Amino acid sequence: MSEGWVIFGYSVVYGFMVLYTLYLVGRTRRINRRKEG
Amino acid sequence: MRQRSHQALNVLAVLAIGLGFTFAALAPAERTQGDFAKIMFVHVPSAWLAFLAFGVTLVGGVVWLVKKSPLADRIAASSAEVGVFFTALALMTGMIWGYPVWGTFWDWGDARMMSTAIMFFVYLGYLALRRSIPDPETRAKRSAVLGIIAFVQVPLVYFSVTLFRTLHQGTTVVRPDAPIDPEFLRALMINLGAFTLVYLAFTSWRTRLARLEDELEESEALSDFDIAGSGITAPQLGEVTGDV
Amino acid sequence: MSGRAFWSQVKEIARKDLLIEGRAGEALFITIPFGAVALMLIPLAIGTDKPLLAQVGPGMFLAVALLFGMLIAFRQTAADTPPQKELLTLLGTDPAAQFVGRMAASTLLLLIFEAVLAPVTVILYNPGRIPRWPWLLLVMFLLALGLALVGTLAGSVTAGLRTRNTLTPLLVAPLSMPLLLASAQVVEALRKEASILLWITLLATMNLTIAVIGVVTARPLEESSR
Q1: Chains that contact A by 3+ CB pairs under 8 Å?
Q2: Using the beta-carbon criterion (under 8 Å), do B35 and A6 form an inter-chain contact?
Q3: A23 touches chain B (CB under 8 A)
Q4: In terms of Cα–Cα distance, which of B89, B156, B154 is closest to B123?
Q5: Which of A5, A16, A35 lies nearest to residue B216, judging by beta carbons?
Q6: Which domain holds residue C154?
Q7: ipTM metric
Q8: What pTM, to 2 d.p., does this model score?
Q9: Tens of pLDDT along B50-71?
Q10: Residues 6+ apart with CB under 8 A from B127
C-alpha cells in the first residue's frame, strides 16, 4: 500500500509541474501571437 | 535574462528533477516508515520553496516601494504565483503523507500544515488583488503592502498553532525533522536543489511573461487613443517644389 | 507632526466616522441582525443538543464575531470617495492619523457588535458559567481591536476596486486566523482553569504588529489611491 501512495504523491508533484509548464507555454504563445497580429 | 539562458535554466531544472527522483528512488527505506517516508523528498522541498517564494515577494514589494522599479514588482508577483503553486504541492503531499499515519487527511495540531494552508489562502488573495487593479502603479503599491502583511502573518500563524499543539498534546509528530541517515539527507538535499532550480525557472519565465504582457498592454493602450493634436502636422519645407 | 496634533487628528477622524455611521450608516443595523441570524442557524445545522451547544457556544460567538464583524471593519462608509480623499489631503491630515482614527472608530463599532451578540449567544447556547469570566471582556476588546486593524488595512488596500466586497473578506479571513485561535484558546484555558497569559500576549503581539504595518504603510498607500 505504501508504495502506491508514494508513487501517487510523486505523480501529483511532477504532474503539476508539467501542468504549470504547459500553462506558461500557452500564455507565452498567446502573447507572442497578439504581439505579431 | 536572454532567451538562451532561460532555455538553459529550464533544461537544467528538468535534469535536476530527474536526478532528484533517481536519488529518491535509490535511497534506502526509512526505519520506521519504510518507503513511505520518501514522500518527504518532494514535500519538504515544496514547503521550503513556497516560503522562499513568498520571501522574494516580500523583498520585491519593499524594493518597489523604495525604488519604484517595475522589475521588482514583476518579480514579486511572479514569485507569488509560483509560491502558490509550491504551497499547493506542499499541502497535497502533506495530506498524502499524513493520511496513512493519521487516518485522516488533516491533523489539526500540525503547525506546519496549518501555516501552509493559511499561506495558501493569503497569497491566493494577493493574486486576486492584483487581478482587480488595472493601473500598474496602484497595483504594485497595494500588492507590496499586502505582501508585507502576509509575510509577517505567517510566523504568527505558525507560532499560534505550535502553542495550540503543545498545550493539547496533539498527535505525535511522526515526520522526522532531521533524517539521521546520510543517504536520506543527501537525497533530500539534491531534491531541494532541484526544486530550487524549478522555482528559478518558473519565476524567471513568469517574470518575462509579465514584462511582455505589460509591454503589450501599454502599446495597445496607446494605440487606442489619438494623440492630441495629431491632426495638425508641422509645415514641411521643401515639399512644395517637389524636391525630396 | 507633533504628537498632540496627531492625536487630535485621530480623534476628529474617528468622530467623523462614528458620526457618519450614526447618521446614515447601516453597518450596525445590518450586521448585528445578520450575526444574530447566523447564531440561530448554526444549531439547526450542527444539532440542538444542549450539551453540544453549551460546549460550542463561546466558540460560535467568536467565529461569528470574526466572520461577520469584519464586514463592519471594511464597511463602505469607511472608504473615502475620491473627493473626500482630496479634501483630507488638502486639509493636511496625516495618513497615519487617518488609519488610526478609522481603526479606532471601527473598534468601537465592533465592541458594540460584540456586546449585542454576546447575550444572544448566552440565550441561544446557554454555555454556563465560565470561571474568571471578566477576562473575556479583555478578549473581546483585543479581538475587536485586531479585527479593526486588519479590516481597516485590508480596506485601504482594496479601496475603490470593483471587487472590493468579495475580495476584502478573502484577504481578512486568513490573516485574522491567529486572532480567532488565540481568543478561542483563552476561553478554553479559562474553562480548564489554566493560564491565559500566552494567548493574551499573542493577541497583543499580533495587534501591535498590524498596527505598526498600518501606520508605516499609510502614507505610501495614500499616494496611490486614485
Answers
A1: B
A2: yes
A3: no
A4: B154
A5: A35
A6: 3-224
A7: 0.92
A8: 0.88
A9: 999 999 999 999 999 999 999 9
A10: B77, B80, B81, B84
